Structures are given as C-alpha cells and as structure tokens.
From TrEMBL:
Residues 27-379 form the Aminotransferase class I/classII large domain. InterPro entries: Aminotransferase_I/II_large, AspAT/PAT-like, NHTrfase_class1_PyrdxlP-BS, PyrdxlP-dep_Trfase, PyrdxlP-dep_Trfase_major, PyrdxlP-dep_Trfase_small. GO terms for molecular function: transaminase activity. It comes from Weissella sagaensis. The keyword Endoplasmic reticulum does not apply. This is Aminotransferase.
Amino acid sequence: MGVNKRVAAIEPNAIRAFDDQTSGVADILKLTLGEPDFAVPQHVKQAAIDSIISDDSHYAPSKGSIALRKAIRHFMMDRYDLSYDVDSEIVVTLGATEGIYDTLTAFVNDGDKVLLPAPNFSMYDPTIALAGGEVVYVDTSKSDFLLTPTQLQAAIDEYGDKLTTVLLNYPANPTGVTYTAEQLAALAEVLQDTDITVIADEIYAELTYDAPHYSIAKYLPAQTVILNGVSKSHAMTGYRIGFIVGPKELIAPVATLHQFTVTSASNPAMAAAAEALGSAQGKLDSKGMREAYRERRDYLVPALRQLGFEIPQPTGAFYVFAKLPANVNQDDYEFGLDLAKRGKVAVIPGSIFNIGGEGYIRISYASSMAVLHEAVKRIGTFLENY
C-alpha cells in the first residue's frame, strides 16, 4: 500500500505520548500539557451561542469572518502597535497548529534549511520534515535559552541561500523565556539584508509577566509572519481558533494553502473569538488570567529552586524548565517516568524538546495553586526518598 514516505517517517507527538504513558498512574497530578485550567468567560461563550441561535451556519469567507478579522486587526494594534489589512493580511486558522503547518508548507521547499532555536516545541520539527525542509538546530542552552545575533549570523554564513526560514517562538515553550525589544531589534538587524522569512510563533504573547511583549515584526515587517490565537490568552483551546498576520506578499500563499486545507473555521467559534479579541471585557479576561499565572510562577519557581532545581527565570508562557538536581538520575526521560510512578507527579522530559533539553524537565503551571502546592510537596518527598 502506498504511504507518503515523509508521513511514514513521522513519530507520534512525543509530548502527548509521554502524557498518555503516565496518565494511567493512580492519583497522578498532571503538570504536562499547556492546557489552561480556566473556564471560557461567559460573554465569550454567549457569543458562540448567539451565533448558533441566529443560524450562522453557512460557509464563512475562507480567510475568516469579517467580524473576527476586524477584531484581530484591533487586537494587534491595541496590544502590539502592529497594523494589518483586514482583506489581505489576516488569515484565521484552526488553532496555531494549523498556522505552523500552513506557513512552513507555504514557505519551505525541498532541501531548504529552517533555523530552529533549541530546545523547541516538538511540533515544529516533523512539520518542517513534511514540507521537505531540513532543520538547523541552534543550541541556546548556553545563551539563556535565547538565540543570539552571533549564532544567527553564523548559521547564515554557513548555509547561505539554503537557509530560507527562521522560526522563533516567544514567550517560549518549553523554557518560558522571551526576548526584549533590544534583543529582537538586534536579530532583525542581522536578517534585514537577507531574503529569509521569519515565522514568529507568538501564541503566548498575552502571557508576559515582567515586561510588555514585543514582536520582531515591529523591526522586520516585510519579512515576518506572526502566529497567534485565543487558546492560551483566553483558555479557548477547544475552540481551535488561531490566526496568521503578515505582509500581503507572504499571506497570499498561506491563504491559498489554508483554503485548500480546511476551507474555513467554524462560525460559532469565530464569533466567540471575535468577542474575546475585540471587546474591552475580553482584554480584562486575559489580564486576569495573566495575573493568576504570575502568582503561580512566583510561588513555583522559588519552591522548586529550594528543592535543588536550577531554573532559568520564566518571563512568559506558563512553563518552568527545570534542570535536574545533581544527585538524581540525569536521564530526564527515566527521571520523569520514575517521578510519575513513585512521586505521583507527571511532567515532560526535557530531551523531548531536542538539543539543550537533556537533563531538564518541563513543568506546566496551568493548574491551580492547590495543585501546585501538592505537586511541590510530592516532588520534595520523592527527592528525599530518592
């Protein structure tokens, strides 16, 4: 039977696989997935209900409803001072996941090199492979988990015209670190005289704790497309609404691919997302969730450091990337399994996130303070009895 060889070579999602592997442990506390624990705000749910009641049941424009694209335009200008045309520079997708697929498939040709700062979210690599590209990993574990201009320039010098795309994710999964405006401007300076396209996955942009979020699109507008959505900012993972914005020259091929992949997103989900992104209350909703995550971070990081973990300060998203104490098994996968089975706490091994992640674990704090307090207690007991 004929199977696409690229598809056949792809392994199942490693994060999901490890989560499934540990989910059967009795009384397990799961700090594995990036799944917000908040309920969707009532006014956002009501917008979806109103869409259904009003028989909003026919094909929407492929790029997304006009109402949602207008809300996205407002959101990007209000939050990040970036302006995009409703008709030609915005595409609504089925979550940021589709955005990853659409952009990489639209921009990457067979044999093209795609630069990926590592450790990195584990969905990028297989999608690059499906597009026929080859990943160029840059180990950021010695540079505070951030890509530096020197590292970027070195990759450009080494690969030349074969390096066609740079994929940046910030605030970052799995590390929780992000870039300052100055750091992004310095990267943009390296890229500005090249033909390299930047895919900026900014799905956690609303979750920054110590400084505002900045986008590299501010400094490199003609070469940058941004991926975002409502999954993390408004706890709407199940609604599957993301979006891609960028200059029309880059959005046009993405819009074509999107049209032939999914046609359009669901009307009730788009109505809900328009309310979340376009209303004053939606902005307050996101701010309230951000403050709750900040409180959790400010508890969890020092508590884990007291237990012997080394942790780069997470400034965004809702992950802690913790280096294992020196006196435990440094095989993070085996440590993660052991912690789940004997300590009753499930985390994600750092090696799943590629080079630079070995000897770390990723802990999601998208859970209540009560769960986090109990998890720290269990981890402490586990380490005491190690």
